[in-house]
Write a structure and sequence with these properties.
This protein is largely without helices or strands. Helices cover 5% and strands 0% of the residues.
């Protein structure tokens, strides 16, 4: 072996040297001499600091000590609460224990007068609604009572309990007396008994003539 061969590397026809590494330093499985691939992960999927590509170690914790669900080894999240929402002293984020006692007042209500579930002694939350979603006047957040009517007595479609809108017409367009906005009933006649052309059921106008200009006597004689 010459001096040149001693200090140079030779690669086989597949591109690997005598130690089994290519010109970039990776073996056939894609790992370098230290056991890491070109992305920096070993055969088990961890980098040289012990974290996988998702940022978790072999025990499932990230660099800050939290698992994929956001809890540390003791079962607390970054805010210091466990899965049930309590800190290491047994209080939730609002200062209530599991049995509803507040850490400051030592009773079932906080200093603002609200209990663990967020209701005051009268049963209303901070927005003024009870557990059923109605305020002190009996209306929900959308402004409707238990029967679906607002303070003006109309439902979401704009009709009152009798089925009429604020203009006094029902869904078919008729008022309480059965007349539409043009003053005609479902048969097409107004309160005086005339249709939109001005003729009654017998076909005569208020002057007593039909559409041919004849009165009842003239029609009879015909």
């Amino acid at each position: 072996m010459g001096l040149f061969d001693k200090f140079s590397k030779t690669f086989d026809k597949f591109g690997y040297d005598m130690d089994g590494y290519d010109k970039d330093g990776y073996d056939k499985k894609g790992y370098n001499k230290k056991g890491f691939d070109n992305k920096g992960y070993n055969k088990k999927g961890f980098d040289n600091k012990g974290y996988n590509e998702d940022g978790y170690d072999k025990d499932g914790y990230d660099k800050k000590g939290f698992n994929k669900n956001g809890y540390d080894g003791n079962g607390y999240n970054k805010n210091g609460y466990d899965k049930k929402g309590y800190d290491k002293d047994g209080y939730d984020s609002n200062g209530f224990s599991f049995n509803g006692i507040h850490i400051d007042t030592r009773i079932n209500f906080d200093k603002d007068g609200y209990n663990k579930k967020g209701y005051n002694k009268n049963g209303y939350d901070k927005k003024g609604f009870n557990k059923n979603g109605y305020d002190g006047n009996g209306y929900n957040k959308n402004g409707y009572d238990g029967n679906g009517y607002n303070k003006n007595g109309y439902d979401k479609d704009g009709y009152d309990s009798n089925g009429h809108n604020e203009d006094g017409y029902d869904k078919d367009g008729y008022d309480l007396d059965g007349y539409d906005s043009n003053g005609h009933n479902e048969d097409g006649y107004d309160k005086d008994g005339y249709d939109h052309l001005g003729y009654n059921r017998d076909g005569y106008n208020e002057d007593g003539y039909n559409k041919f200009g004849k009165n009842k006597i003239e029609v009879k004689d015909d």
